[in-house]
Amino acid sequence: MASIFQFTDYREYLKAYFAERKKSDRTFSHRWIARQLDISTSNFLWLVMQGRRNLKPGICLKISELFKHSRQEAEYFENMVNFAQAKISREKDLFFRRMAALRKELKIETIEEWQYEYYTNWYNPVIRELVTSPAFDGDPATLSSLLQPSITPRLVKQSIELLLKLKMIKRRAHNRYIQTFPNITTGPEVNSLAVVNFHRAMGNLAVESLDRIPKQERNITASTVFITREMFDTIREKIEEFRKEILRLADTVKQGDRVYQINFQVFPVSKAYRRQYNTPNPSSTRRRD
Questions:
Q1: Residues paired with 176 in a beta bridge
Q2: Is residue 66 pLDDT above 80, yes or no?
Q3: Which fold has domain 4-98?
C-alpha cells in the first residue's frame, strides 16, 4: 500500500487507500466505514473523495484510528486535511510546512517540497541567473555580496544545491554552471501556493526597493483607472504580450551585468459598481512615483 507521505492531497490518499484495501478485504466498503465512524450518511467517504464534503477534526482522528495510522501518520493526515481545506494562503503555507517537516524527520524527500522551496524564497530565481555568469568563481560568498538585499553564503550554497536537485542548472567542470529548462510542475494546490508565496515575496521586495534602491535605478509607477471588466481583460492580454516581448528581448542578451525583477500588477481596489442609468465615465486618476 502506498505510503501516506507520498501524498499532499488527502482526497487522493483516501481514494488510493480505499482501492488498495478493497482488493484484500471485500467487507471494506463505504457503508462499513460510515458505520465505524458513526455517520448516518452511508456514502460519506465517497462524497469526501469527490470533494463534495470536508472532514472535521473529530472525523480525522476517527479515520486515523480506523486506518491504524501511526502517530506520525495521523499527524501528517491531519495536516494534509487542514492544508486542503484552509481558506487563506498563509494557513496553507503553515500546514504544508508541517507536512514537509514530518517527511524530513522520516528522511522522505519529495519533488513538491523542492519546487515549493524554489518559489517561496525570492533569491532562488536570482541565483539561477547569476550562477551561470563567467565571472562567478564558484564561491557562494561572491553571490552573497551581489544580492540585494544580501543573504548569507550558506543560503546561497543551499540555493545552488536546490537548483541542482530540480535540474534547473547543471554543474560543469571547475565549478561552472549552465542553465537547463525542466518542466517544473507540482500538484495544483502546492503549485498555486508556491506561486502565491513567490508573488508575495517579490511584492515585498518591490515595496522595500522604494527606500533601498536609488530612484534612477528603479521604475515603479501606478495608475488608478475606472474601467469595465472587458477593458480589464484587454489590459491583461496586453500585459501578457508585453511580458513575452521582454523575455524575447532578454534572450538576445548574451551576457548581462545585473539581474532585474519585473513585476506586473493589476488588481481591483473597489467592488463592482453598477448603475441603472448611463453616466459618463469619470476621469482616471493617475499617480507616478
A1: 172
A2: yes
A3: 434 Repressor (Amino-terminal Domain) (1.10.260)
